[in-house]
Amino acid sequence: MQSITHKRVLGIAVPIVISNITVPILGAVDTGVIGQLGQATPIGAVGIGALILTTFYWFFGFLRMGTTGLTSQAVGAQDSAEIDAILSRVLFLGFGAGLAVIILQVPLFALAFMVSPAASDVEAMARDYMQIRIWGAPFAIAIYGITGWLIAQERTKAVLVLQVGMNLLNIGLDFLFVLGMSWGVEGVAYATLIAEVSGCAIGLWFAQATFKGVAWRAWSRVFDGTRLMHMMLVNRDILIRTLMLQVIFVSFTLVGSGFDTVTLAANQVLLQFLMITAYALDGFAFSVETLVGQGVGARNRRAVRQAARLVFFWGAMIALVFAASFAVLGPLGIDIMTTAQDVRQEARTYLIYMVFAPILGMASWVLDGIFIGATRTRDMRNMMAISAAIYICAAFLLVPSFENHGLWIALLISFVARGVTLGLRYPALERAI
Fold first, then answer.
1. How far apart are CA 238 and CA 376, in angstroms?
2. 204 and 143 in contact (C-beta within 8 Å)?
3. pTM of this prediction?
4. Which of 412, 286, 426 is closest to 359 using CA atoms?
């Protein structure tokens, strides 16, 4: 097995970090282009429509993580036939899930607007947007699996090309369809649909060597019951774990909305700092997923430990940089994100929690990657359940007395709980190799 070095870790992580940067840029361009129409309704329609579809697709995000773990283990075991078969499995699952979303779009849209009602004109325009974009569901969901498959093979430069190419095409088509051809909301939808289909095509192009072989269509292996069941169990545990994580953040927003509008707005501004941290640390989490998975596949305990050690080092460095940046530049960042003086002042009150968040949360991000790579997803699920329970208890005890301060402390406690509980399970992970 190839030695694990700082250069190798960075070679996997840096392209992912760069590609992640394009995600918020695309959202800003979508909003900015449609905002040139000078009306509030189209902005709201694109915003709520994109949120609903992203939420639907997000439920299949486990496909990326599960695929990375399973494929990296096949790479470590030097099982090229299984690597190719995994690609076929994730494509069948991704395209199948997307077709299911298309077939069920009427009840899904109805449920979404029941949960998040909007003004009639906004809802009508959002439906027009969603009815166009929904045809990209098979391609958008398949991209999760393709991305995980490429990452597991340390082909993160390919992932960078896929993501950046897809997002740049989307941005260019936004300008052409909306500003050049006056297609309005439908133009934004068509731009995203074409970009998602193209992104999937780029990913498949990077897999062309696999399609020149025969293992990808060895159907007895692709649809082997034991392997399919293992894949389903891994993905099921990741989905449950992710749902519990989402409960923490949704409840954080809902409890925060119970204080006052200014506090709610301040919390949302500060959560953007947390998203920036997540985008950066994701690159290193992906590194450790890949390297740990390969170590497990090769039955090389020393490689797993070395991967964990190096990624923890880089995770700690990144966390300290972000903590220092938020401490020094946080007020400026707040001022850039909002012009409301009361929200600015309120956000500054709670900025200290963003300084501590990267430091206290780093271990949970890295350990998530370690357990995904090892496909110890049952441990991830169970430790997340414990952490969510600790968060709920902390919020129940702290919020009545300390209000929003108590809410932020409870969130940071949940980060620590995730890191500690997974850390306690790490020795068992090593013993199992």
1. 10
2. no
3. 0.90
4. 412
Instruction: Give the C-alpha distances (Å, rounded to integers) separating 372 from 65, 166, 249.
Output: 7, 26, 21
Q: Sign of the C-alpha dihedral, residues 381, 382, 384, 388?
A: positive
In terms of domains, do 372 and 263 share one? yes
Q: What letter represents residue 312's amino acid?
A: F
90 close to 148: Cβ distance less than 8 angstroms: yes
Neighbours of 403 (CB within 10 A): 15
* C-alpha–C-alpha distance, residues 186 and 209, integer Å: 37
Q: Do 208 and 324 fall within a single domain?
A: no
The residue segments making up the domain with residue 215 are 1-223
Domain total of the chain: 2
> CA-to-CA distance for 111 and 130, rounded, in angstroms?
14
Going by C-beta distance under 8 Å and a sequence separation of 6 or more, which residues neighbour residue 414?
248, 387, 388, 390, 391, 394
What is the mean pLDDT, run by run of 10 residues, along the chain of 433 residues?
87 90 72 75 82 85 92 95 96 96 94 80 90 96 96 95 93 92 92 96 96 92 93 93 89 82 84 84 91 96 96 95 94 84 91 96 95 96 97 96 95 97 96 92
Q: Are residues 30 and 76 in the same domain?
A: yes
Q: End of a domain among 159, 188, 223?
A: 223
